[in-house]
Amino acid sequence: MSAPTWEDLSIDELEEHVRYHNRKYWVDDAPEIPDESFDRLVETLKRRAPESAVLSQIGPAGADVDVVDPQAEKLAHSPAMLSLDKAYDEETLLKWYDKFEGGVVVTPKVDGVAGCLRYDARGHLHVAATRGTGAIGEVITEQVRRIKGLPLQVEATGIEVRGEAYMPVAVFERKFKHEYASPRNLTAGALKLKDPDKTADYEIRFFAFDLLGEDFDTESQKMARLEALGFEIPEHHRVERDQIQATYDDIAARRSQLGYETDGVVYKAERIGEQERLGHTAHHPRWAIAYKFQGDAGESVLREVVWNVSRTGAINPVGIVDPVVLSGATVTRVSLHNLAIMEHLGGEAGLRLGSRVLMMRRGGVIPNMERVLEAGDTPVEIPAACPECGAPTERQNDVLMADHKDNCRAAKIRQIEHFVSRLEIKGFGPKLLEQLYDAELVTTPVDLFTLSVSELMGLERVGEILAEKLIDRIQGRREVAVDKFLQALGIHELGKHVSAILAERYDSLEAIRSIDAEAFAEVHTIGEVIARSVTEGLKEQAELIDALLEHLTLVFPSPAEEPRVEGSPLAGKRVLFTGAMEAMTRKDAQREVEARGGQCPSSVVKDLDYLVMGDADMERFEQGWRSSKLKKAEAINAQGGAITILGESGFLKLLNDGADQ
Ligand code: IVH
């Protein structure tokens, strides 16, 4: 078949071509059309028949290439190939560091497939295996022989080298990114192909970081020896306590330029003697720890700070930074949250313009300025007046405030904007709200409820149909859940989490309005500052609340049906737990899900949203292991299901998401 214009083909023909060329590439190893042309073919089919089953058969799986059969040879690891302990903050890391002497060696954590290589008495590569369960791996010697840059013979006898096989990002982008989600899965697949010659197509590489069978005093010596034997080793840095965080920051900032995927930074005690003294648990060595990245990171420079009037009237800083790409999107603006957080970021000198900063997108969503890597020289000027209405500013605890509430257009519009967003009244964007405000039709949230179709039609570009629709939407929100109502008031500290707590604990608004700050402060996660801000805010907004109640009916949750945290990503989700978790029992985990409005079915069902397992199982899963529940989940996904498979830490993140505002 020659390369026709794909557009001219019928869907049947497109499918046939995709199957044919996929097979040519993967099975016969004799592609007839260039990769780009194949990509275009697939794109065309995707666009014209997004449901086509052929789309899920692209790649080796669809080309009938058998993976190693389940009876394949196994290799027992001795000692076991352990996991790594994890840290998510500097404090945990320093606590770990203080347990031994002699500094650490730091390397990027390579996100690939762990494996071991054994060399025989003549120094020949004799057997290679995946990490597998840690105790037992699958033999993949022939596949590993196709890894470029990996010595098949070494000048040493009877050694075992351990490390990580990975696919360079450049290879992934050149050959696979259109069809596959991640280089890591491809690496695992490539190492299990039945025909080892095909493994070469994936251009897998191998980083060595452990050597058994020879003695060393330090990790640095071990790395040097591995390199001398001809292995590729990852970049490594020998550092002391004060450089621990900075080394992490540095690697995080260069993450996208490393050439391979990383999911954190590994620290190992430099002295082998100390490693031996510390020993290991059944799960991980005590002398090593991984400081995991929490999102995509990049480096930028802070150029300017602009000040934004928020719905609460606070004037909050927003950083303008040099463009930086995080999780695929270019970021130039980053909320610095409030005055105190901004100051804290800059350390003692305060945040300065021209600073080199570490930017991160946690969970891939909102960009955040994590910390200053190198201070700049120009101090940030804190405005003496509200940039919108000119009212003088003053510091109130953590925030810069101005008494502009009654005459600041920006603050008022933002308050209404916040109100419609929390009540989910769709269609009232900032432009429309500005028009309504300037026409004096809506100057407080209360005015929304008396707005008429004819008033709306008086505005530019609002016709009758739209006006009616907008009014319908407002009228459709006259019954509102009490926690949404509380959030909508725009009171400082009265966000999702606190509103949910109030809604759960009290059964009337009167009760909420008369709570005692001191008693409320005692509630878990509340504390004095929040309690005071909320009780005072409710008093300050008394007039607004009374006026709103003329138009609204508040609905209190009946505990059985209403989620405690309505905004939780777990609300309405089905979650199934499998295997043991560390932080809580399965029962407790189920209770937490249910408290957030989720459900916990007892088996893998079609409409399951999350299958959650302990991190140890998650790691085994990532190495290829499958329990029957996992197999079932994957089978459902292959048929259009959307079950997300999560480790414990991923689950904990979901639990906490939406727990604050
Ligand atoms: S040091 C556990 N350094 O992570 C022994 N391991 O989660 C310490 N890994 O199976 C190994 N990058 O294959 C070390 N720079 C790195 C690493 C690394 C990835 C893998 C390793 C291990 C897994 C544990």
From TrEMBL:
The active site is at K109. Residues 565-661 form the BRCT domain. Its cofactor is Mg(2+); Mn(2+). Its EC number is 6.5.1.2. One of its GO terms (molecular function) is metal ion binding. It holds the Pfam family HHH_5. NAD(+) binds at D35, E36, S37, F38, D39, S83, L84, R131, E164, K268, K292. GO terms for biological process: DNA repair; DNA replication. InterPro entries: BRCT_dom (IPR001357), BRCT_dom_sf (IPR036420), DisA/LigA_HHH (IPR041663), DNA_ligase (IPR001679), DNAligase_adenylation (IPR013839), DNAligase_N (IPR013840), NA-bd_OB-fold (IPR012340), NAD_DNA_ligase_OB (IPR004150). The keyword Protease does not apply. Zn(2+) binds at C386, C389, C408. Keywords: DNA damage, DNA repair, DNA replication, Ligase, Magnesium, Manganese, Metal-binding, NAD, Zinc. It catalyses: NAD(+) + (deoxyribonucleotide)n-3'-hydroxyl + 5'-phospho-(deoxyribonucleotide)m = (deoxyribonucleotide)n+m + AMP + beta-nicotinamide D-nucleotide. Gene3D superfamilies: 5' to 3' exonuclease, C-terminal subdomain, BRCT domain, DNA ligase/mRNA capping enzyme, Helix hairpin bin, Nucleic acid-binding proteins. Belongs to the NAD-dependent DNA ligase family. LigA subfamily. NCBIfam families: dnlj, PRK07956.1. HAMAP family: DNA_ligase_A (MF_01588). DNA ligase that catalyzes the formation of phosphodiester linkages between 5'-phosphoryl and 3'-hydroxyl groups in double-stranded DNA using NAD as a coenzyme and as the energy source for the reaction. It is essential for DNA replication and repair of damaged DNA. This is DNA ligase. The gene is ligA.
